[in-house]
Every structure is written in structure tokens, then in C-alpha cells.
Amino acid sequence: MRNLNQHTITEAVIERFADTPSPRLKRILTHLVKHMHDFAREVELTEDEWMQGIEFLTRTGQKCDGNRQEFILLSDTLGLSMLTVAMNHDKPEGCTEATVFGPFHVDGAPHYENGADIANGAKGELCEVSGMVRGIDGEPIAGAVLDVWQADATGHYDVQYEALAQPQNRGVLVSGPDGRFNFRTVAAVAYPIPVDGPVGDMLRATARHPWRPAHLHFMVRAEGYETLVTHVFRRDDPYLDSDAVFGVRESLLGDWVPQAGGGYALEFDLVLNPKGSKRSVGSAHATRGLMRSESIS
Ligand SMILES: [Fe+2]
Questions:
Q1: Quick one: which of 112, 227, 270, 287 could link to 116 by a disulfide (CB 3.0–4.6 Å)?
Q2: What spacing in Å lies between the alpha carbon of 155 and ligand 1's midpoint?
Q3: What pLDDT does 279 receive?
Q4: How far, in Å, is the centroid of ligand 1 from the Cα of 149?
Q5: How far away, in angstroms, is 186 Cα from ligand 1 center?
Q6: Does domain 80-281 have CATH number 2.60.130.10?
Q7: Is the pLDDT of residue 229 over 90?
Q8: Neighbours of ion ligand 1 (CB under 5 A)
Q9: From ligand 1's centre to the CA of 222, what distance in Å?
């Protein structure tokens, strides 16, 4: 295996993975090498350009910490997150569709009773959110665990404030015996994804805007149903057709209805897909695995 050239090196590298014990890992690495090599040949990648690429990826890793996940942002803005969601959550008609997980979920959010104010002091106009968790046949799902999170009126999540001592605009609730849930929060607004890192550099270099349409995040878990990771988007938002992370789905649009006494009300039902449903493929596990650095084995 000497004197490899630009045409023979790909096969040589792929052969080196021949003894990989896990067939899945072998398949992933084989195709990764094949497509990376084809990419380099197609764009006639120079050494300087690849060094710039390595520096970009290095900065992306260095930007990550316990609260900032620049790699999720990169995956989101390149459409890879939404692609994996679309491939792995092909649900029956009538189920609430999945969308990107995003970089701002935090494990261990505070638990609240229904009716509570999860804003916990966050800036913004009041919004009363209510709905029902149900199955595809309309059955109410009691005891579903709803993880909700969103940005404040300035477009920032609590984890983006260094000095903030308390979680804001995030919480965990449980649906009642009738499947219903309700809580108070602030009205969602459109916000730009963080542009102070390498992903921001990429957006500026490519004349792309960083805005996401206003939305409220949900992750819903219930025994016997597939976990749903999704958002509800504001139907009147100007960025619905140019979401920086490609996450908008028509079925996820909701109405923030202005109330006579001020503030808004949002009513949105979350319809879960039973586990083992014939038309579902994969699971939320697949998405979270890719998004949350689970090892491939
Ligand atoms: Fe978000």
C-alpha cells in the first residue's frame, strides 16, 4: 500500500476499517471517508483551505462549554439536525411532528405544578399556555412529562446570561388525569442564534441571517409512546420561511391570541405516536444520540 494517489487513497483508507467489529460503525466510517474524499476532490480542496477548515472546527469545539453547544448550532445551521429528525420521525398523519432539539435544552429544569409561572422573573409579556397530550386515536395521556423551554422578550435563553442564579422560562410539568397541561410563561419572540462564535462567522461570510421564528420548545415523554421533541411556532412570524436552522413545519404553527386584559393565550395539543407504530421509524433516542455525543457502537 504505497504510492497512493488521489484516485486510489479512498479505497486504501476504507480497507483499513475492514476489521471493525461493529458493522454499524464500519458502515458509518466507510461512507464518511468516501464522501469526505469525494468532497475534497469535487471542490479541489487546497491545503490552505483544509487548514482553515481545521481551525474552524477547532474554534467550534473551543466555543463549547456546559451551557454553549456550538457543534449543535453548526449541525442545525447546516441542516444536518433537521435531516436526521426528518429521517427518524416519519410519523402517522395526525401526530405532532418533531423538529430540531436545538442547543438550549438543560437537563434538570425545575419541576412545576400545572398553572405555575415558569417564567420565574424572565422579561416579557404574559402568555398562558394550555393544551392536551393525547394519542393518535384521541385518548388523553395522563402523567406525560413535559419539558418546556424558551427565550425571553430580548431573545435570550436563561443560560445565555452569565450572572443569572435561577432557571427562567424552563420547567418540567406533568399532564393531569385528563391529559391536560397549562402554565404561564412569556410570549415567544423571534431571536437570532448566537453569532459570537465560528457559526456566526460562517453566517456572515455567506450573507445568511441568524434569525429563528418565535417558538416554544417541548419535549414530551410518556410510557408506551415515542418521545416527542418539537416546537410550537408563532403563526404570524416573518421568519417562518427562512428559519436559520430549517426547523419550521406547517403543522407546528400555533396562535398566540391577544387577551383583553393584556398578554396572550396559546392553546396547542401534543399528539404522541404509540411505540411500535407501523409507520414510525427510529425513535427520539436516535436524534438525541446524535445530538448529545452518544458513542456509536
Ligand atoms: Fe429555541
A1: 112
A2: 9
A3: 54
A4: 8
A5: 14
A6: yes
A7: yes
A8: 102
A9: 22
State pTM to two decimals.
Answer: 0.86
What's the 69 CA to ligand 1 centre distance in angstroms? 13
Q: How many A from CA of 215 to the centre of ligand 1? A: 6
Amino acid 295: pLDDT: 41
Nearest-Å Rg of the Cα atoms of the chain is 22
Q: Where are the domains of the chain?
A: 80-281
Torsion, Cα of 7, 10, 12, 14 (10° steps): -160
Centroid of ligand 1 to alpha carbon of 253 (angstroms)? 14
Q: Please check whether residue 146 is in contact with residue 112, taking contact to mean a CB–CB distance below 8 angstroms.
A: no
- Grid coordinates given for 118: 415558569
Q: Give whole-number Cα distances, 128 to 30, 115, 149, 200, 259, in Å.
A: 50, 9, 14, 33, 10
pLDDT confidence of residue 283: 43
Amino acid at position 67, single letter: N
Task: State the distance from the centre of ligand 1 to the C-alpha of 154, rounded, in angstroms.
Answer: 13
Sorted by sequence, the CB contacts under 8 Å of residue 64 that are 6+ apart come out as 70, 71
